Amino acid sequence: MNVDRGSLGIPLPDPPVRGWRRGAPNVVLIVLDDVGFAQLGCFGSDIETPNMDRLAEAGLRFTNYHTTALCSPTRASILTGRNHHRVGIGWHPDLPMRHAGYNGRIPRAAGTLAEVLQAEGWATYAVGKWHLTPRDERSPVGPFHHWPTQKGFDRYYGFLGGDTNQWTPVLTRDQAFTDPPARPEDGYHLNEDLADQAIAYLRELRAYHVDRPFFLYYATGATHAPHQVPSEWIERYRGRFDQGWDAWRGQVLNRQREMGVVPAGTELSPRPAWVSAWDDLDEREQAFCARTMEVFAGFLSHTDHHLGRVIDEIEAAGELENTVFVVVSDNGASGQGGTHGSSNELKFISEKDEDFETDYEMIDELGGFRTYNHYAWGWALAGNTPLQRWKKYTWEGGTRCPLIVRSGRVADEHRGSIRTQYSHAVDLFPTLLSLCGVSAPERLNGVEQMSIDGLDLAAVFDEPDHPEVRLTQYYEMEGSRAIYHDGWKAVTDHVYQGQVEERELVEGSSDFSTDRWSLIDTANDFAEVNDLADEHPDIVFGKIDTEDQRELGALFQVRSIPTIMAFRGQIPVFRQPGLLPEPVLGNLIEQIKGLDMADGEIVRQIQVGADAAHVIEPIEDIQQLQALARCVCFTHRHAGE
Which residues are registered as beta bridge partners of 215? Predict the structure, then answer.
């Protein structure tokens, strides 16, 4: 007879405590904020980042690494290994919505990297920006389900929101709010504080556990606005950017070519009409814009300096070679400063126009206690050299970001080299588990886990010419959509609607029914300069020319519009062999026919659940159908409009 021991008052045994594996590597995952493809020294910049550069010199640079184009979604993808919509972070958790892809809550079925490593004995620490807690759960009384300490981190120190004042941050320690340890007048700055705390955590660990591996998630507030930094760091760059963004872009591209960061024949993407030519600015405009860039450069160098202190601590402990370092940015450089930059970038949230006269009056205050400044979008374009656009767009300027990996797994002869294989934020999760010798669990903390979208990149480390690991990836961010497959990329001209100047000045579409899809041959067009959509109707097309495709198109009410991503009235169709084979389309049609759903519901139902198995069970090629479902489901929140 089975007896419930607990119901009889007999104490239940504690779950077994897993010990750690001696010799297992430490992991330091450094997530920068709004740092563009071209803003680190080792990616072609003249901004001084010696500590990140030394990690690159002893490791690898990945020049074809991509993000979601926005901070929280990228962080969710990195930590879970799943695409951002699958884990509820299709956008910021500041505005949770009643849609599965946008509820702002990572499900327990998508265990984080911290949870997996914690279960394997790693000590886990998070320091800095979190931005994965719904806004309505960021109170002193919780609920705490989506705070770092409930997502696998033993300890946490940082800020829960998307940005914070670097002089007077809103700080949290573990599950309680706390004041900064000093005042800005006394020399306090968040960069230094975060490094101090990270070092304190590591020293405390070694005082008690001399051989326990650790995972340190180090997420700076930099270089997200406000760009704030001690004046001596700004003064290092006085006059360095007086030549303007046009000249700087050309100089950076030349360095990138020399370094091999971009192919030798890479073109510079044209400066768009809505970004002023530097020479067209008047003297005061040039002075203000140059100063905002000096502040940004000082902020980035200051961030690198304090990151270097953490690296030095690990090296002094003799653990440098047994530590995996990863440096990433969460998205491309930010254009939230508009045409001239801003002394208070939060104006755009309030739909307020910039007043240049007011901004110019604050030029000597930029970077200090009284401003919340951000540079102009001309510098954002330059920071993403040679790419187009910036943060929030699924063009490469929003998604392609620096990635540095330093690991003992990298052989000496490969250190300092470059990898060009396509990769995405979701790939870091399985790659880091592989480097740690840990398998992703099927169950974690009693919960069956969702499938993982990421792919292990470790095989690429010692094989520069290793075949591509990732062949397909979708993108959707604030209506900007793209899909990549085997060297081809289709991307829309949809314009971000959250900022007055972008709505009014940026060329493109603000209506999904008029969005135009461009086709890029990414293998031969690094900067997305040449749109081949009209030249290759065999790759991107809107006409359905087989019986199965016509029937599928009718179910989704397809219009004859060239498109890759699904939307109301659109269905993605790639004619590349193998992506959407006829048997999969046929089986999908048969199942959709049996579903009693309103228009716009089909797509969401395909994606519901960890693997949508209740819908796709009879289909022979599950992975290909999942790829299709994920391509089409994430614009569902607009489908019902």
Answer: 27, 124
